[in-house]
């Protein structure tokens, strides 16, 4: 589907930036409009390394999906998925893996369903991640998964948009629902709490003006919020290490003067 078809989706206004399309542009995608590109470029003007970090996060998601598929997982449940373009998990997984995407934004869902067409192995459903357990227990979710609860779960780039107790509830909801042996890929964003810059404050302010929480925690705090999930083999790694990139791939400039770091981990329920 080209961007002209996307413009014909009910509710889509090419003149108004959309978070999912801004993310698509940041990843180098083509399912976006000039308004989305301008909004993204403003973000890059504040924190130029945003594009680099976001693309690394997508690469980590792809890598985790391939790894868990190789371990035998045939069901992937993804949260706050954004647009399911071809570089999302369904595009890198074998055809026997079922993928359930979800998002709370009705416009994102409408665009997503047009992108996916009638692919029987992929479904896109509405989900408020603050009510993840209720979502997972829905009949349509159960039917799509065939009752399977030993699944691979994805929560990429989500934690920063949830308050501490919301994070705790989200991870606990997934843990309580999932069968033993399930695994959960997730990422954490951190910074030096003693450092800030006007650009960083403006960047955070963009999300706050949209009514979004934007809160970073320390790595030990994230791991506490994730309990009782536990890190699997390999433990918690920086995203560059997770991807096997050289130690100097992330420069001091990429940290934007506030010590930005991203981590990736595959958690497990034993």
Keywords:
Rossmann fold, SAM_dep_MeTrfase_SAV2177_type, 270 residues, single chain, eight-stranded mixed sheet, alpha/beta
How is this structure best described in words?
InterPro entries: SAM-dependent_MTases_sf (IPR029063), SAM_dep_MeTrfase_SAV2177_type (IPR006764). This is O-methyltransferase. Helix content is about 40%, strand content about 15%. Strands 1, 2, 3, 4, 5, 6, 7 and 8 form an eight-stranded mixed sheet that branches. The protein is an alpha/beta fold and about 270 residues long. The chain starts with a helix and ends with a strand. The chain has a single domain (about 5-270), classed as Rossmann fold, CATH 3.40.50.150.
Give the helix tally.
Answer: 12
From the 3D structure, determine the CATH topology. Answer: Rossmann fold
Helix content: 40-55%
Order of helices and strands: HHHHEHEHEHHEHEHHEEHE
Counted up, domains total 1
- Distance from N terminus to C terminus (CA atoms, Å) equals 41 Å
The portion of residues forming beta strands comes to 5-15%
Radius of gyration: 18 Å
Shape descriptor reads globular
Low-confidence stretches: none
What is the strand tally?
8
Largest sheet: 8 strands, mixed
User: What is the average of the pLDDT values?
Assistant: 95
Structural class: alpha/beta
Second rung of CATH, namely the architecture: 3-Layer(aba) Sandwich
CATH superfamily: Vaccinia Virus protein VP39
By CATH reckoning, the class would read Alpha Beta
InterPro entries: SAM-dependent_MTases_sf, SAM_dep_MeTrfase_SAV2177_type
Protein name: O-methyltransferase
Pfam families: Methyltransf_19
Organism: Corallococcus coralloides (strain ATCC 25202 / DSM 2259 / NBRC 100086 / M2) (Myxococcus coralloides)
